[in-house]
Amino acid sequence: MQRHKKYLVITIWISTIAFVGAGFVGWGAYDMNTDRAASVAKVGHRTISVQEFQSAYASHYNFYNNLLSGKLTQEQADQMGLDKIVMNTLVNQALLLNYADEIGLVATKDDVKERLINTPTFQTDGVFNKELYYSILKANRINPSDYENGLEKEILNAKLENFFKLTPTPKEIDLFASAFFMEDRLSVAAVTLDANEVTLNEDAIKAYWDKNKSNYLTKKSYTLELLNLPASQVKFDDKTLEEFFALEKHNYIHPDGKLMSFEEAKTKVAVDLRLKNDKKSSLEAYLAFKKGELPASETKTIFDDDTIYPLEKIQVAAKDEVLKPVVIKDSYVIIKVKTIQFPEPMSYEMAKKDASRDLLEELKSAALDKKAVTKLENFTGSDIGFVSRDSVKSIAGLSEAKSAEFLSHVFDNTTKKGYKIIDGKAIVYEVLEQKLLNKDKAKQYVSMISENVLQVKQAELNQNLIKKLATAYKVEQYYKGK
């Protein structure tokens, strides 16, 4: 997570094309003074625009959504205070940029031009393609001047980082290497439970459910009225398709990032061109459906884990709101959010299966804890020799991945004896001997170690610098959060 945190704190700028795939934040308590309407904050002499805030919010939303395998909801984002995280990030960036201005650092037009022409996304066969550049920005609804202003900030921030770059000393590298490549000689033993060692009965399950009712809720659901619009039957000749492809080819890429040829993309191009032609009629149908002049095709109930319908729009819609046409399975669909059913406590019968599973896990964990502690009192195990944090081997019957998890626990703790519960068993261990530094291994990873030292020092410097700058520059926030 540390690398992810550094990415968020330092490098999220509006230059990241991240509007697609995330809803925009609702404006909550916002100062609507006409002089401030275009900004969410002013830091020193720099303002943070509404557009910057929305773009950074989209970037953060996508970042956390990816960490959660695409399951982040707008409600969860609100609960974690995502808008406040974004605001804090942008204010910190603005503090640093004010300081960069004060000490005379500048991002020139030539700096921006060089960054642009060396961005692979905007290149064709390794050469900057101006038409492709404008086409991509247009597709993502980003004004070129806004994008280039964002690049200017990113470049200025990089220059400030370089200005304060703290080269790791040999002693610091040795200290970090010792932490990374310390080796422990371990004695280990696996403690398991017998099949019937932990049992459940109805009274215990019911008592557990009664105590933890708030953990067992129904899913939030949405009843939708859908107007499914039939696809037009128009056919396109190859010349028409090729002309459309030439304008939109940046949208047709392989998983490895390479552009598709026309033949590879032809089927999808035909669908996309049809959808473009059908858009006007879909908007006409949307207006008619909204006025009640067209009946719904079907009614459907979906939940927050749905993967077909546009949850990012549905989750923030009001009851009876009609959404503009969306594309589902290559056809336009108009959605009316008829009812929203919020989570409610499950009945005992509905929750019994989940409550039984959770209670059993708790009881097993408690029983394993007890047996592991008893085992530690007079511990004898198998000597597995010296291991390091990055050793790749199976330990006590665990997979290599789970063994790596166990080793991380061992090296993250300072106790000589301990245990870690993994995969339904407790791995008890004792450190028999230590080697402080494997110099041969350290030499192999000197670049990685130096980078880690640099990141730690840079993070500490940034944190202290931002605290100091917050007292030097006036911070006015117009957006007060939800």
Concise overview:
It is found in: Cell membrane. The protein is α+β, with helices and mostly antiparallel strands and 482 residues long.
Task: Decide which structural class fits the backbone.
Answer: alpha+beta
Number of helices: 16
What is the class of the largest domain in the CATH system? Mainly Alpha
The second-level CATH architecture of the largest domain is: Orthogonal Bundle
Q: What percentage of amino acids are in beta strands?
A: 15-25%
Can you walk through the features of this model?
The structure is a single chain. The chain is α+β, with helices and mostly antiparallel strands. The protein has three domains: 2-166 and 451-477, Porin chaperone SurA, peptide-binding domain (Triger factor/SurA peptide-binding fold, Orthogonal Bundle), CATH 1.10.4030; 183-212 and 350-435, no CATH class; 219-341, Chitinase A, domain 3, CATH 3.10.50. It contains 16 helices and 14 strands. The chain has helices spanning 2-11, 50-67, 74-79, 82-102, 109-117, 130-139, 144-163, 170-181, 202-211, 238-248, 262-290, 311-314, 348-377, 400-412, 439-444, 446-472; strands spanning 39-43, 46-49, 123-124, 127-128, 183-191, 221-228, 298-303, 321-322, 326-328, 331-341, 382-388, 417-422, 425-435, 475-477. The strands form four sheets. Strands 6, 7, 8, 9 and 10 form a five-stranded antiparallel β-sheet that branches. Strands 11-5-13-12 form a four-stranded antiparallel β-sheet, sandwiched between helices. Strand 12 and strand 13 (425-435) form a beta hairpin. Helix 2 (50-67) packs across helix 4 (82-102) and helix 5 packs across helix 7 (144-163). Residues 1-32 have low confidence and may be disordered. It comes from Sulfurospirillum multivorans (strain DM 12446 / JCM 15788 / NBRC 109480).
